[in-house]
Amino acid sequence: MAKRGFFAEMNYQAQQAEKRSRAQQVANDRARASAERELDRSRKAAERARLAVSRASLADQKTAEREAARLYTEYKLAKVASLNSDLARVYGEIDGLLAWTLEVDDHIDLESLRSTAEHPPFDAGVLANPTPAMPELVYPTEPAYVEPSGPSALGAAFGGKKRHQEAVERARSGYEAARLKWHEEATALHAAYVAAQARREGVERRRITSLAAAESAYAEACRQREAEVEARNQELDTFVNELAFDVESAIQQYVGIVLSNSVYPEAFPVRHDYQFTLDTRELTLTVTVPEPPTLPAVKEYKYVKAKDLIAATPLPVKAQKDRYAGAVWQVAVRTLHEVFEADRAGKVHSIALTVGVDRIAPATGRPESVPLVIVSADRESFSNFDLEKVVPQATLAHLGAAVSKSPFDVTPADTSRGVRARSAE
Predict the structure, then answer these.
(1) Is 345 helix (H, G, I), strand (E, B) or coil?
(2) Could you tell me which of 3, 63, 87, 415 has the fewest CB atoms within 10 Å of its CB?
(3) Distance CA 409, CA 357 (A)
(4) What distance in Å separates the CA atoms of residue 239 and residue 96, rounded to the nearest whole number?
(5) Which of 44-53, 261-270, 357-366 bottoms out in mean pLDDT, i.e. has the lowest?
């Protein structure tokens, strides 16, 4: 049997993601949300009541205990309601396997598989920030020479002139010393500033170089994404062209996409194996369904107050058998419908379908596949059925299918009378 091709696998993964999303939406429907809110409310109320009992006075103790018991019972009943809501959802999904696919068009628009490159925004991080500029160098104020004031006429007559000359010499000497110190400090400041500026320019050059390298790496990653998308789209173009010209592998790959698009509920997963033969234009298809014990076997949940436990009421065996058999019949009719409806170009003329179970044989302990339905259907006949009104088991009988007398007991399909494809009547 064939394995899923590239596009089938890609579509399968997308459908699995959609399936998980759809299951999450179903899980959060109004009924379940209401049950969960009630469960949370009653749980908190019961906890508050329990605390109230421990704090109550002796006079109020019995009243508090009764209230706590009442709220605890409400909490348990809310939990039961939530469990039963989940159970009803699961059974609804299993019972509606055929109805679900009739609500959608199974045809695959291959253009929807065309890829578009999506690039994340370039993030330069700290490299986007320029190295801070050096502040302007401020030199210390240059000392100024201040000439000592000369002596008055009277002071000059009594030796003031000589003293003034000595004061001038001291002033000039002090000025020269101060100016020399200022020059040395200014020279040192300038040298330190030049060195710091050089370091800053070095840091900035390295930042610019690193930023350019990061931009180049980003551009290369974008080019690689574009190239990968282009390659996938070219592969898609080849696939579409080969499908148009009836290349056997392309038809088989399209069938794989269709089947990968068939999403089943988590409680009833299936697996498809298939092989298309161009000479006969027949698709040989096997659908493997879950074993009966994997399905829920609970009718409903109830709270047994006397024992303070939530008990599961078993689903009657007949109901289990009817539901499982109904699911198997639905899978068979659904699979035929999905392939024929999706194949608008009429590449597949007939389908040889087997629906079965993989299990460990009780007698030998070895793996075995047990067919539960074996049926052959041609496009022309099947397209005349109104599947919204059919009873799946009757449809299979009309097609001359070999069916199991008891799928739930994994009884092999009865092939004693053979399998035939019947025309629509």
Answers:
(1) coil
(2) 3
(3) 11
(4) 34
(5) 44-53
Residue 177 and residue 400: Cα distance in Å, rounded?
121
Is residue 81 within 8 A of residue 41, CB to CB? The reply is no
pLDDT tens for 366-401 read 999 999 999 999 999 999 999 999 999 999 999 999
> What pLDDT is attached to residue 425?
41
The residues with which 375 forms a beta bridge, in sequence order, are 353
Nearest-angstrom CA–CA distance, 25 and 32: 11
State both tokens at 275: 């092989």
List the alpha helices (DSSP H) in 245-355: 248-260, 317-342
What is the full DSSP assignment across 192-253?
HHHHHHHHHHHHHHHHHHHHHHHHHHHHHHHHHHHHHHHHHHHHHHHHHHHHHTT-HHHHHH
pLDDT exceeds cutoff 80 at 265: yes
**Contact at 8 Å (CB) between 74 and 45?**
yes
Order of all β-strands in the sheet with 402-403: 271-277, 282-289, 350-360, 367-378, 402-403
| 67 DSSP 8-state letter | H
